[in-house]
Amino acid sequence: MAKKKENPASSGFANEMKTMIGPHLNFAASEAYKLLRTNLLFSFPADEKCHVLGITSTFQGEGKSLTSINLAYTLAEANNRVLLIEGDMRIPNFANRLKLKKTPGLSTLLAGLDSISDAIQRISFRRSNDPNPVKFDVITAGNIPPNPSELMQSTRMQHLLNTLKGFYDIIIIDLPPINVVTDALVISHYVSGIAVVVRNEHASKRGLANTMRQLRLVNAKVIGFIYTNAENYKKKYYKGYSKYYKKEYRA
User: Fold this and answer.
1) What are the helix (H) ranges across the chain?
2) CB-CB contact of 106 with 147 (8 Å)
3) Per residue in 127-169, pLDDT tens?
4) In what order do the strands lie in the sheet with 193-199?
5) Are 52 and 188 in contact (CB under 8 A)?
């Protein structure tokens, strides 16, 4: 594979994004993602060389893309070789959010217009007081195609994942919401498991029940739920715990 293009993602973010992505997460959020990382790794077969995780939700706006990015960062932080694929080709946002090139991307790869090495972009996050940046690779959605579902269930998608699995420990695919389009369902047989993002006071019981019913119909392996935007009733505890750790590390 050709040398990846590097992008210093920690510079140029809008101020609000700096508190939400990678090294800019607060202590409580960072610890929550580390716990999620541990739980996910225990959910996959030990003999599987590369884990492919699909992340979806019931509806739009539940935080699945942000969850995918931060999970990729947290996994890369633990020295895993991570690839993040933007599988939501209908409403792409990785290019703007991560300051990456929009194309080449997944759509042009599946259409046979670009090579894998051209589509992969490497992103680098610098942490304070640490000279070693956290790096992982990203494939953006590319140009919006007229037939996303057909591209996702094509043999080219299967061959693409099989090829990429030889270079990474973990591949994360940010998928569209289940109750909006069928893209996440058609790719369910190509992934090791699917995690469903559920946003507090946004997802409905009926919508989530329909999501699970559709996933069961295609025999998808649902490995769990990721609950977002929850009220942090332990806010004061985490704040004190963070200060304690910082004090102890200084000592």
Assistant:
1) 15-18, 27-43, 64-77, 94-98, 106-110, 116-119, 148-152, 155-164, 183-186, 205-217, 235-250
2) no
3) 777 888 999 999 999 999 999 999 998 999 999 999 999 999 9
4) 5-8, 121-125, 134-139, 82-86, 170-174, 51-57, 193-199, 222-228
5) no
